[in-house]
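Last lecture ended with a question: if I hand you only a sequence, what can you say about the shape of the protein? Today we answer it with a concrete record. The protein is ADP-ribose 1''-phosphate phosphatase. Below, first the input exactly as provided, then the predicted structure, then a couple of comments.
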Amino acid sequence: MNHACNARGAWGSGVAVAFKQKYPYAFRKYNAHCLSPPTGSKLSVKQHQANLVGTTLLVPPPTATKERQASKTPHYIACLFTSLDYGKKVSPAKEILENTQKALADLANQIAEIRGSDEDGGQELGSCYAVRINSGRFGVEWQKTKAVLEAGELDITIVRPEGEENASGAGTTAREKLDQPPMRNGGAKGSKPPKAARPKAERPLAKQMVVVKRKVQADVDGDDNSGRENTTGKQTAPLQSNIAKRRKRLGSDG
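The predicted structure:
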């Protein structure tokens, strides 16, 4: 697995963070390689780091005795030093492309040495894979780096995040959301359509009988009240006439 690195020994952003989490053993090897000049060398750390640009550190899998580390790093990790610095101090795009070409040539030589010849019993290596190097935090247009990779000696397969389309438009796509059913009242999404009134003919028979009973009872009560009013009027009329006569008679007596 190949990816582009700075020569300062930091995997702190972009895809480098994922590599650091996935391959901690490879990160320790990379970090030590950047911060430790060769034994017996009089170079400073910064001078040593400057010399790393344009080269590749190929980290082999851990030995079988380190089973825990071997499970985390089951294959080779190729660290291509394409930029001296990172962040705001990242190398210019032109230099990064030149460094990429040199680093790929160095990687090809290392792989050839590992494989060796059949007579020497060389080690068999698998296929080479890489992310779209230089196109993330280093800010180099991917098509330019791609042209450098295609011109190199190695046959490298580029891997992409799941669901992302490639240059030809092929690739998986995210599942679309289900279409919402049309609103009957033309309202906004989430609003409830008004409930349609139930036709009278659809009401249950029991409810219809209750309504009829109430109407009949109201008519009966109305007739009773009117009769009572008429009867009372007929009974009070003679009583009032008798009272008037008695008052007149008492007035004449006095």
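Comments.
1. The chain is about 45% helix and 10% strand.
2. Strands lie at 2-6, 56-59, 77-83, 128-130, 156-158.
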